[in-house]
From TrEMBL:
This is Beta-glucosidase. Belongs to the glycosyl hydrolase 1 family. Its EC number is 3.2.1.21. It comes from Ideonella lacteola. It catalyses: Hydrolysis of terminal, non-reducing beta-D-glucosyl residues with release of beta-D-glucose. PANTHER family: GLYCOSYL HYDROLASE (PTHR10353), LP05116P (PTHR10353:SF36). Gene3D superfamilies: Glycosidases. NCBIfam families: BGL. Keywords: Carbohydrate metabolism, Cellulose degradation, Glycosidase, Hydrolase, Polysaccharide degradation. InterPro entries: GH, GH_1_N_CS, Glyco_hydro_1, Glyco_hydro_1_beta-glucosidase. It is an enzyme of class 3 (hydrolase).
Amino acid sequence: MSSSIFTPVEFPVDFLWGAATAAYQVEGSPLADGAGVSSWHRFVRTPGRVRDGDTGDVACDHYRRWPEDLQWMRRIGLGSYRFSISWSRILPEGRGRVNPAGLAHYERKVDALLEAGIQPNITLYHWDLPAALDDRGGWLNPDIADWFADYASVLFKALGDRVPMWATLNEPWVITDGGFLHGTLAPGHRSAYEAAIAARQLMRAHGRAVQAFRALVPAAPDRRIGLVVNIEPKYPASHGAADLAATARADAYMNRQYLDPALRGTTPAELPEVFGEAWVDWPAEELALAHQPLDFIGINYYTRAVVRDDPAAWPLRASAVRQTQATHTETAWEVYPPGLTDTLLWFKQHYGDLPIYITENGSAFYDPPSVEAPVLDDPLRTDYLRRHLRAVHAAREAGVNVRGYYAWSLLDNLEWALGYSKRFGLLHVNYATQKRTPKATCALYSQVISTRGRCLNDTASAPTDGLP
Ligand code: GBH
């Protein structure tokens, strides 16, 4: 088998093509139909936390406009839609009383997707915690494993007979690094002690939810549960011992901190030196709980990092070296498609042949706030998509078990602390009118889906004639 990126592209018939969103980023109407307040509803109201004071109060109005967005998904030709459920719509206080109207909302959405032949892929937790649970310590409270399993069980009972793919958590690393270590995301704390505690509670909660799934949903090939992690391959800035050790720390911290417990029942050897005195060994029973058999792993890939030793960088003592010759996206991330092939090969080497889905991949480049033309010209974004899909194909050619790809994102949306300033969508959203307009990348993606990627072999540039 060849792993050359020049192998002609052709994905198999059953390769899953999707697009992803997350509840707080797209839904709007955060308190509608009896929903409770979430941690993000609160965080966006804390002065200075989100750029320009942006909030998810309206966002893409997806909570009300999802039927229109479903029509867009059909036009693009998506085989799957990955979205998250807002915990505080289902359980307004986070536990106890179920809100039937919140549940009904997601039941309608799931049924409409199935009706349209689009597989729902549900993420249980994409960062919006019920505020009532935050008041009890949130991810720092050991009871959260029970709260999360109870919440998950409500959904498994209501939707477990219909939903083919579930994920427990989206990017536990981002939850702890952003929420508890650096404080850039809700709940905005800054403590290595808290980050280490939250990591353990996240994986206990993950384990309990997977156990609940096995207990409540009869085993079937199209009833699967997994975990979604963000991976960013780490390359040493030099081959000096200090840079190599820094690279290993960064890799352990970001890439293996959650995969090792989930897939091997261990924690990476480098973590005690990363966390210093905040580190606590995970008790054997916690490692066992985190280590549940999974049906797939979801990998979110955006960029790589070239790492150097940096004693001043807390707490990793490592920092990324900006690659000045490279193209960077609007979020200042290096465009590095070979890193996606490397990530997939790395996963296979470390963790074996578990089915992999790329559950997010995409880029923010400048788009004007409103557009009149039917299709936006975004050559950097189309180039990003093209090259990353070739990178996925190269990994498949090299024998990696990658079975699907989700573009991030279906829609431009609230980019967390960066507000609406960054646009990752296949569909442009005019926030003043809520008009959706397919970008050139959207048209390209649609063509990729209908040709199973063969159009990527053409040297011609992206289609500009819109969606079929
Ligand atoms: C995802 O996280 C989220 O799941 C999604 O909600 C979000 O909208 C999307 O990505 C886009 O941001 O600054 O060069 O050090 C992204 C995970 C981890 C990717 C940190 C970029 C930092 C690169 N991110 N990483 S750098």
